[in-house]
Write a structure and sequence with these properties.
Elements: E1 8-11, E2 23-24, E3 36-42, H1 66-69, E4 77-81, H2 91-106, E5 111-113, H3 116-124, E6 134-136, E7 148-155, E8 158-168, H4 173-181, E9 188-197, E10 213-217, E11 225-227, E12 234-236, E13 244-253, E14 256-265, H5 274-289, H6 310-313, H7 318-325, H8 332-339, H9 345-348, H10 375-379, H11 383-387, H12 401-404, H13 417-422
Parallel strand pairs: 2-14, 3-4, 4-5, 5-6, 8-9, 9-10, 10-12
Antiparallel strand pairs: 1-14, 3-13, 7-8, 11-12, 13-14
Helix pairs in contact: 2-5
């Protein structure tokens, strides 16, 4: 994709929903027209603070988001995060949650919606009040925080009201949404965050609800237009993992408001905000101080196997050892040090041998022979193979390439598996170039 091409640009036509609140189509203007207001939408970070940095052309990062809206005056924009900050509630996830809350403050977000897990964690950690942004949630909060927030937005020379509300995926979601949004008010844009996949929503149930923009869940990392609004509200998603920012442009056209939605990629080439870079370094420091790497959960190796380190393989596999030592896998630990992530177990697991298992990597000082992606990460623990002078084949656990070369960590790996495997050929019998010899 060309970096000058917006990943998604759509023209939205919304039917009239009430008197003084009609929506018509308009052309999306890449030059940020002066008469427009904007709702900037993020969400579904799912624990991602920034890309891992293991490959080029990765998208995302809290430290780069401000570049997306820096040319929009504060009175002309609303910054809204729709929630789903985490996937899990482990110790490292909770550290990330704290960092995200601080990031929202640094970035001057206006509204943050807490979904179920978000709300539980925010309650336990005291984030329901005292924030610089408005907190909202419909996640069984017993009235502790509002389920809707009203904000003014400058569109051209007038101010309109944007009501952001949320509803959970429950049987009476439509009725709850109607109660939260209330009667249609003139000059008001109603944005409803519906924590549900679009294809599971009964749009007929929402027919009588004054919703203009419906924000749904999606399995795509890229913001999508799920329903262009020709029948019912404009239904959109905001993507995942912070790779994109959704920009909803609002303009006055005659007596109507028009909407256009774009997905703006958070390119790695964008300048980083120093404050957010410092915040990520704080996160790395906390992970180190909490010694999460040493407390990483481990499983016992089967059949009393043990890791012996790549140098032990050199005795019989000199040629293969020399070839491997020249490959990128042999420098995997250095890439962690360069990124400052050598204490982060989420990163370390793909840069060493056997972190998930007892007897595997624990630290650079205690197990230096297991740093980098060595022989046993792909071929399995070598103790029995070594003891029997090669008669016993190596066995599981053996890590497959795709475990670490995911879409996020290696964006270019998918559909190029054969090319990647050709780069790691290091054995004499090369009859099958697409397989790693076990």
């Amino acid at each position: 994709m060309s970096k000058g091409f917006l990943a998604l640009v759509a023209i939205i036509a919304l039917c009239a929903s009430a008197l003084n609140n009609t929506f018509e189509s308009t052309a999306a203007d890449p030059n940020l027209p002066a008469d427009a207001g904007y709702v900037m939408l993020t969400g579904n970070e799912l624990g991602s603070l920034r890309p891992c940095g293991c490959a080029e052309h990765q998208l995302g990062g809290f430290d780069k988001r401000a570049q997306i809206w820096k040319d929009i005056a504060p009175e002309k924009r609303l910054l809204v995060d729709t929630g789903n900050l985490l996937e899990n509630r482990g110790e490292q996830d909770l550290i990330k949650f704290d960092i995200m809350i601080q990031a929202f403050a640094f970035l001057q977000y206006d509204v943050v919606n807490f979904t179920n897990l978000d709300f539980e964690i925010a309650t336990a950690r005291g984030y329901l009040e005292g924030t610089t942004f408005d907190v909202m949630s419909s996640a069984r909060n017993d009235g502790k925080v509002p389920v809707a927030v009203l904000r003014e937005l400058l569109v051209g020379s007038e101010r309109i009201t944007v009501q952001v509300a949320s509803v959970e995926a429950v049987p009476d979601a439509a009725a709850n949404a109607a109660a939260v949004l209330g009667d249609r008010e003139p000059n008001t844009l109603n944005v409803l965050i519906y924590n549900q996949m679009y294809d599971r929503i009964d749009m007929q149930e929402l027919a009588g609800v004054p919703v203009d923009v419906l924000v749904c869940l999606s399995g795509s990392d890229t913001p999508e237009i799920l329903n262009p609004g020709s029948a019912g509200p404009l239904a959109i998603s905001v993507g995942r993992y912070g790779k994109y920012v959704g920009r909803l442009m609002i303009r006055r056209v005659g007596s109507s408001l028009s909407l256009a939605y774009e997905a703006l990629p958070v390119w790695e080439e964008l300048p980083s905000d120093p404050a957010l870079v410092g915040l990520y370094k704080d996160y790395q420091h906390i992970v180190k101080e909490e010694n999460l790497l040493a407390r990483y959960p481990r499983m016992p190796l089967p059949n009393q196997l043990e890791y012996v380190g790549s140098k032990s393989c050199r005795v019989c596999h000199e040629e293969e050892y020399v070839l491997c030592s020249q490959m990128a896998h042999a420098k995997a630990w250095k890439t962690l040090i360069d990124a400052g992530s050598q204490y982060d177990p989420e990163c370390v697991v793909c840069h060493v041998v056997g972190l998930k298992y007892e007897g595997g990597f624990t630290s650079a000082k205690k197990t230096p022979e297991l740093r980098d992606v060595g022989c046993e990460e792909c071929h399995g623990p070598g103790s029995r193979h070594l003891e029997t002078l090669g008669k016993a084949k190596t066995e599981q656990p053996q890590t497959e390439c795709a475990v670490c070369h995911t879409v996020d960590n290696s964006p270019e790996y998918a559909s190029h598996e054969e090319e990647y495997r050709a780069k790691i050929l290091h054995w004499k019998e090369q009859n099958d170039a697409n397989s790693v010899k076990k």
